[in-house]
Write a structure and sequence with these properties.
The chain is α+β, with helices and mostly antiparallel strands and 860 residues long. It is built from 28 helices and 28 strands.
Length: 860
């Protein structure tokens, strides 16, 4: 990574000096097939012509390119010596004219890390597939450019590819004389240009829209995946959600989709969930389901489709100037994804998923030492890469939901419409959005922005209830607190709900009031005189972004009657609050686990149920007292099996409990049942053990030494696919052997031979909760290796290694001390690397506090 960084100051200087008129990019990827070209990286030819203006003739600047070699560079007809002007990541440009033409002929490297032009060989049939992924700054690995979001320009791409391939890019394309040529794009940023090439399975459809003025819009639709996944590809459902989303955004944005066609490519070994390249959105192929999944998976896919579609306006049409304002696209897309899911598709309960899952990501990120305001201080590209986080996405979306409550939905959407029309194909900052919202709402947005966008941290709200002698509410107040490190108490629009049990035992809301909470204590006058509640739910209906706490009466009610809450959103909010209390060492892990075992079986929302499974497992692994883990594991295993057997045959709940049972199975009887289900000697009515579920059952067997290398090889022979290979690699690394761990460590840390997907799989298998002693020796090796890994590997692989191999299972004060020692001794390490280590340290310290809380509960 040395030399590849770009600072905000450098970007600003270049943007003040240059403006770009257009790019012509010619790629020759015929080298992707056939034998490699010797000992070096496999490369392809990239020829780029950039026409740009300089407002200070005679000045100097630079273009960006990360490539093994440059064959030729020409500036305004002058041939430059590549060895003099190219340093491996930048091309020096001296004595610029007012109007300039730069031509760069380079040999660029195919990627195996998902950055740049990724090359994948399908083990199933040997076919080669290519796709690009650039955000935030990897298009320079494919063609020479000015790699920053505010130097937008039209692009023309042409690609030479093997005869039997099809090639796609942002614009419509056709093949002539062996070359794929694509229509010129509108002015867009470099990071959202895209090329996909290979023998993809491709399905087409179209979208039609007639507007009120009689004009007709026709958008050609396409969806593609590897040939090996074609039998599983439900393109009809992808197109259904796509059309519903286009209708929804046309209804609400009053700006027709501006980028011509709309292709969606599901690609292998993808680092992200998806990427909003206009006209050619790319997704991780795991969104094509090879086995039975719950509706939560379909809802999640729909949410991602709509999230990326929202980017066509928020991010692609109008783009932030620099990554400080990344939220201007990601927060909006995250909010709009759920907003459209509820408003346009069959997933009417998507706000429940948002409250339970997305906000959990935000709450965790906002309590890390690396927390930052939504409008962040992004000094350089490494900062930018790490800021695709829970704050930029989920907290930002939560704040926008609060903003809609603050200014009203109509004013919010009218602000968006003016924003698109005023800044189409341009770049913006925070103030540009606030200006239109002030116009449409009539409110001063500056105070709101200061509190919500320019400060960090999450507030916590707790109800205080005083009852009269007659047993009614004398006074109900909301107490707001903030962490000492981030003391801002924000203004909130919240709903407060009062709940009591009915005659049939249901726990239902009987009173509700909305109130503006501002400051440390706010009295909810509207609820005075109400009947005494058994449960007070602050932030009922999830209007704001805060951690919810409970008074003693409410907590006691939830311990006994959580399953009786009839409203699924209220139930999800209570579960989320209880989980936050567990993470904050306010609720013992064994208590949270007990609540899951007692009430999760009654959970109707499948997404919430699957989240509870993940939280219960995390509570056991990280927050439970070490001497209770065996007991907790036994209880979870017994409870999961009981619910699995009791679930309706063939239901989503049965599938979810089967996967959870596999995740927590540990004793001989449980492992024997998993083996029997694999071999067909055991049956559970309605449970279809398909290929994906087989791998889910095999991992715990491998981790406990009950499935050896031969068994995993046999399973791969049964599922000899790219997906099967990833599963096998994870299971191989999970085996309880010192030699296995040493080999996995060497493959990830000491070698760069594995692709990004196999690095991820190996890391996932390496550290098993049942193998704490086995992986303990790697704590010292981790701290000795991470600075070298960060320096030598791509930022994506560096992030995977630093996050994934942190010795969190060696959860002791010794590990905390070792982490502090590394941080103290490496004050000058890359800030992004230090941030990752600080985050892991905070998670470990939080786990130790949780374990202490859980230990204290043992003596109750």
């Amino acid at each position: 990574m040395p030399g590849e960084n770009l600072s905000r100051d450098e970007a600003r200087e270049r943007a003040a000096l240059l403006s770009v008129d257009g790019y012509e990019v010619s790629l020759d990827v015929r080298s992707a097939t056939g034998a490699a070209q010797g000992d070096g990286p496999r490369t392809f030819r990239s020829v780029t012509t950039i026409r740009f203006r300089c407002n200070e003739p005679g000045a100097s600047s630079f273009a960006d390119l990360v490539a093994p070699s440059v064959t030729a560079v020409s500036l305004n007809g002058r041939d430059l010596d590549p060895s003099e002007v190219f340093d491996g990541s930048r091309i020096a440009l001296e004595d610029l004219a007012a109007d300039n033409e730069l031509v760069v002929d380079a040999q660029c490297a195919y990627s195996r890390t998902g950055e740049g032009l990724h090359r994948f060989v399908d083990p199933e049939d040997g076919e080669v597939y290519l796709y690009t992924q650039y955000e935030p700054a990897d298009s320079r690995r494919v063609f020479a450019n000015f790699e920053q979001p505010d130097l937008k320009a039209p692009f023309r791409f042409e690609v030479r590819a093997p005869e039997e391939w099809t090639v796609w890019s942002n614009g419509a394309g056709e093949r002539a004389d062996g070359v794929w040529r694509f229509a010129e794009t509108k002015p867009i940023s470099t990071y959202i240009t895209c090329v996909v090439a290979g023998p993809y399975h491709y399905v087409t459809d179209s979208y039609e829209r007639v507007f009120e003025d009689g004009t007709r819009l026709t958008i050609p639709l396409g969806a593609m995946c590897r040939k090996g996944l074609a039998p599983h590809f439900d393109a009809d459902d992808v197109f259904l959600v796509t059309k519903q989303g286009l209708d929804f955004f046309h209804d609400h944005f009053d700006y027709p989709y501006p980028f011509g066609k709309y292709d969606q490519a599901f690609v292998p070994e993808y680092n992200l969930g998806a990427m909003e390249n206009p006209g050619l959105v790319t997704f991780r192929e795991e969104y094509i389901f090879r086995g039975k999944v719950t509706q939560a998976s379909y809802e999640g896919r729909a949410n991602v489709i709509l999230h990326e579609m929202a980017h066509m306006w928020f991010g692609d049409l109008v783009t932030m100037e620099w990554w400080d304002d990344l939220w201007l696209k990601e927060s909006f897309a995250d909010f709009m994804g759920t907003f459209a899911n509820v408003g346009a598709t069959r997933f009417k309960d998507a706000w429940i998923t948002f409250a339970n899952r997305r906000k959990a990501w935000a709450y965790r990120a906002d309590q890390l030492p690396s927390t930052h305001p939504i409008t962040a201080d992004i000094r350089d590209l490494e900062d930018a890469k790490l800021n695709f986080d829970g704050i930029t996405y989920a907290k930002g979306a939560s704040v926008l939901k609060q903003l809609v409550a603050y200014v009203g939905q109509d004013a919010f959407l009218e602000g968006a419409r003016r924003y698109f029309k005023r800044h189409a194909y341009g770049n913006t900052r925070l103030g540009d959005l606030l200006a239109v919202l002030e116009e449409t709402s009539g409110r001063d947005m500056s105070a709101w922005a200061r509190s919500w966008l320019q400060t960090a941290g999450v507030n916590a709200m707790t109800p205080q209830v005083l009852l009269s002698a007659e047993g009614r509410v004398d006074e109900l107040a909301v107490v707001q607190e903030a962490a000492e490190s981030h003391p801002e108490l924000r203004p909130h629009r919240v709903a407060v709900g009062l709940y009591r049990r009915t005659g049939d035992g249901a726990l239902e809301r009987y009173a509700r009031a909305e109130v503006d909470v501002d400051g440390p204590r706010t009295v909810v006058a509207e609820l005075a005189g109400a009947e005494a509640p058994e449960l007070v739910l602050v932030n009922d209906d999830d209007l704001t972004y805060c951690k919810t706490r409970f008074d003693e009466t409410s907590l006691a009610t939830l311990r006994e009657h959580l399953g009786a809450l009839t409203d699924p959103l209220a139930r999800a909010l209570c579960w989320s609050a209880l989980w936050n209390m567990t993470r904050d060492a306010l609720l013992p892990a064994r208590d949270f686990t007990g609540l899951v075992l007692r009430f999760a079986g009654r959970e109707s929302d499948i997404g919430v149920l699957q989240m509870l499974h993940a939280w219960a497992n995390s509570a056991l692994v990280h927050y439970a007292a070490p001497d209770w883990r065996a007991t907790g594991g036994r209880l979870l295993g017994e409870g999961a099996l009981r619910e699995l057997r009791d679930a309706a045959p063939g239901s989503e709940q049965q599938l979810a409990w089967a996967r959870f049972f596999a995740a927590v199975a540990s004793d001989e009887a449980e492992l024997a049942l998993l083996r029997g289900l694999l071999e067909g000697t055991e049956k559970i009515e309605g449970l279809d053990v398909d290929q994906e579920l087989r791998w889910a059952f095999l991992e715990p067997l491998a981790a406990h030494g009950a499935a050896d290398e031969a068994a995993l090889a046999a399973e791969l022979a049964r599922d000899d696919t790219a997906s099967g290979k990833r599963h096998q690699v994870r299971c191989l690394a999970a085996r309880p052997s010192p030699a296995v761990k040493a080999q996995a460590w060497a493959q990830v840390v000491e070698s760069d031979a594995l692709s990004n997907a196999l690095v991820e799989a190996t890391i996932a298998g390496f550290a098993q909760p049942s193998q704490r002693e086995l992986v303990a020796p790697y704590a010292r090796k981790y701290f000795a290796a991470i600075e070298r890994v960060w320096a030598e590997r791509s930022i994506q692989i560096g992030m995977d290694v630093v996050r994934g191999l942190f010795p969190s299972l060696r959860d002791s004060q010794d590990t905390l001390d070792a982490t502090d020692a590394w941080l103290s001794a490496h004050q000058d390490a890359a800030p992004a690397l230090r941030r990752l280590v600080l985050e892991a340290r905070d998670d470990l310290a939080r786990a130790l506090r949780g374990q202490a809380c859980d230990s204290a509960a043992a003596g109750r």
